[in-house]
Amino acid sequence: MNQILRIVLIEDDDIIRMGYQSLLNDVDDFNVVNAYASYDLAKKHLETDNPDVILLDIQMPGTNGLQALPIIKKALPSTNIIILTVFDSPELVFEALTMGAGGYLTKNSSAAKIIDAVREVSTGGGAMSTNVARIVMHSFQKNLNSPLTKRETEILDRIANGQTKPQIANDLFIDQETVRSHVKNIYIKLDVNSKADAIKTAKEKRFI
Amino acid sequence: MNQILRIVLIEDDDIIRMGYQSLLNDVDDFNVVNAYASYDLAKKHLETDNPDVILLDIQMPGTNGLQALPIIKKALPSTNIIILTVFDSPELVFEALTMGAGGYLTKNSSAAKIIDAVREVSTGGGAMSTNVARIVMHSFQKNLNSPLTKRETEILDRIANGQTKPQIANDLFIDQETVRSHVKNIYIKLDVNSKADAIKTAKEKRFI
DNA sequence: ATGCTATCCCCCAGAAAGGGGGATATTTTT
DNA sequence: AAAAATATCCCCCTTTCTGGGGGATAGCAT
Questions:
Q1: Is the pLDDT of residue B48 over 60?
Q2: Where are the domains of chain B?
Q3: pLDDT of B132 above 90
Q4: CATH topology of domain B5-140
Q5: Portion of chain B with pLDDT greater than 90, in percent
Q6: Sites in chain A below the pLDDT cut of 70
Q7: Cβ-nearest to B144 among A70, A97, A163
Q8: Tell me, in Å, how far CA of B197 is from C1' of C11?
Q9: Taking CB atoms and an 8 Å cutoff, what residues of chain A touch B82?
Q10: Cβ burial B66-84 (10 Å sphere, 16+ → b, else e)
Q11: Options 3.40.50.300, 1.10.10.10, 3.30.70.100, 2.60.40.60; which CATH number does A150-204 get?
Q12: Cβ burial, residue A174 (10 Å; 0-12/13-18/19+)
């Protein structure tokens, strides 16, 4: 499977775009089939370009990269898209990943990293620069000093998944009153007095 | 800040452990202060070892790596831990990340990748091998073909965060009856008839 | 031995949920 | 321009759930 990878660039800065183009074209099995200064310019050609991988900037005139991402993904579901941008705020990163980006690189990435990333996402993999990996990993980390006990956490987790107290009681083979007891303690510990506030507080503090 | 990085290895395979030890000790600013065949052997020495980074295997006799992870994190909060294992199932990866791992590498990682990872996590960053990045990124991707409208998704999302219909109505400046209408349609589209089932189905299908 | 945890019990009023049945205006799609 | 989808609002109703108050008890860990 040493096939030529068809690549499309969408990047508004002429210098950067041409730089990436020559960088990627120098790789034996890469072929930059087209390079556009915006998504609006690219959209009518993407079907025929039929790229395996698109390198997509976020900031550009007209439809921006994050807006374009789901549109492209729907039109060309098998195309893998790498966001290539100077921005690395958590909001942008999560937005891009939920919308189907296969990679997220910041523009300080080395040539080798970019080439690796293209190869990686072309097989359905994931690629991100270290600063992005940092953001993503931090989003997973739970607070290890939660005031909630195991049981309380278990119950709050189920509440956050929409289960009612009777349902929880049933699932855990305990009485509704026991669930109620735990919930009371959860509310005291989190200093709240409603389901919504408990979930909100617990998520903010990463207890669940 | 060109300080020597103090490193501890916890890995039960003698050959592999010694291999990593010599690999890392060959790096100028790295110092493998100790290497143990299990966490149970390591635990009484970790405080004095005072490592900046720990490379931690999952599979080992006695307390395994994932069990040890939160314990170490609590005892040495400023120590950054990299999981180094042959396993890369989503469950293990998520477990490790939520428990505070700063990196997750599989053992097919190159020497350069491992060295990079140690450096990266020592500054609080994140490091993962490409197969792990793949798992993590896929966990973020939403289904772009949700049957739910924007408004319905917004409302279901709020329900999943514990808000009641009156609260949602208030936040969105619409009538409770409107919220009710949307919820009815959500239930029909998802073929459910309760909050819990709606959340469950929507999460499974990645609509929210 | 004291505290924390998990379990269960009762009272109560008010709130919320979910199943029906609609209507209407605005958008979007065709 | 017509048809479909969406977002908004209205009424009926019963059942279920919630949260606040007051407890008790057995086991486990420090």
A1: yes
A2: 5-140, 150-204
A3: yes
A4: Rossmann fold (3.40.50)
A5: 93
A6: 1-2
A7: A70
A8: 32
A9: none
A10: bebbbebbeebeebbbbbb
A11: 1.10.10.10
A12: middle
